Amino acid sequence: MKETFFLQVSPGLEDIAIKELELKFKSLSPLEEIPLCYKERGGFTLELERNMGFALNYWLKIPNRILLRFAHFKCRDLPKLFNKIKKMQWSPYYAGQELSVKVSAHNSRLFDDRKISKSIEDGLAEYIVRQVPGKKASQRVSQFPYWSLFCRFDEDWCTLSIDTSGQRLGLRGVKTHIGLAPLRENLAAALYLYTLKTKPLGRDLLRPLFLFDPFAGSGSIIQESTAFFEPNTKREYAFEFFPSTLKDEALRKKPAPLNLEMPLSSFAGEKNSVQLEGLKSNYQAAQMSFEQHAVACGDSMNKAHLNKELLPKLTSFKGHEKWIITNPPYGKRLNSPGTLKEILDHFFTFYNWDRVGVLLPKGVKLKEINYQCLGKLEFSHGGEEVVFSLWCRGT
Questions:
Q1: 2-163: CATH number
Q2: Per residue, what are the HEC states of the chain?
Q3: pLDDT tens-digit profile of 20-38?
Q4: What is the pLDDT of residue 334?
Q5: pTM of the predicted model, to two decimals?
Q6: CATH second-level architecture of 185-233+256-392?
């Protein structure tokens, strides 16, 4: 039996998140058709077998979390909400654990977050009194601290969704150091896939890639690009602690990598020596080889530094696709290295890159830039509207 899942993403990244699902689903389940995705602001819904929906937590790098749509019903008063909750079949997912109820309400008679949460919590407590969970199930759920139930009221329709992820999926369970105004991991993954999939196709999956991030910070862009096709088994997920998972051997088994592409090589530049040490620590935690993923301290806007540190690596990677993907300092971060035009001029003058992708605040003027813009991806980062623009020299 198929279930409905909602994959929550940062607004603006819905299309690229769907592309990720389509790209990976072919290898995860080659005998099944790619499910239809119904896009809405902040995510998309699809129908999948329950185990496959849960397993997407391991594989998808762009969503923030994956929710299981549990119930949908009309409700205009708190007593009805309480009665509905206590009669539902919660046992596959709930065994009395403490959980956070997250409420949103729009154009509904029920709108008070606290009263709605209290009715849901009372209904769950009544359910547990009537359906006492087994000892093993109670022990299992007590081992995981991040339980959430999402309740949404819209035009008096209540939708209940069970969080299958736990902590947001952007927390990979690897990074030991966080830089100044860091780029969230799921956003960095989106930049990589957008660069990969924007036509003309940036990269044949069988062709090796050399990736340079001149303003690497804590290393999110290169780390996410390197691990994009690998399952994240380095953290725990809520679904792994559901009571129903205890009885399902397939769900208890961690997945193996798909090995869809050749490994990429990279070079990370960082001007701040303290930041660079943090970046090295993150690489070590992710078991990334410094021989394959080089780092150097210095100003990437200085050509002498690039000639010394970067040029020998570029010449040694013959036949590689060569990209820049970067999130330069801007706004409240450190001083900006220059305008978009200055950044592009600097790096295209230094080397004939196949693609250069730059993330900057929305509203940056693109006039007087003599390069071909392959596309733009607009989304919100830390409350600020930003745009990732992708460039090549053109003809």
A1: 3.30.2130.30
A2: CEEEEEEECCCCCHHHHHHHHHHHHHHHCCCCCCCCCEEECCEEEEEEEHHHHHHHHHHCCCCCEEEEEEEEEECCCHHHHHHHHHHCCCCCCCCCCCCEEEEEEECCCCCCHHHHHHHHHHHHHHHHHHCCCCHHHHHHHCCCCCCEEEEEEECCEEEEEEECCCCCCCCCCCCCCCCCCCCCHHHHHHHHHHHHHCCCCCCCCCCCEEEEECCCCCCHHHHHHHCCCCCCCCCCCHHHHCHHHHHCHHHHCCCCCCCCCCCCEEEEEECCHHHHHHHHHHHHHCCCCCCCEEEEECCCCCHHHHHHHCHHHHHHCCCCEEEEEECCCCCCCCCCCCCHHHHHHHHHHHCCCCEEEEEEECCCCCCCCCCEEEEEEEEEECCEEEEEEEEECCC
A3: 999 899 888 887 899 999 9
A4: 45
A5: 0.92
A6: 3-Layer(aba) Sandwich (3.40)
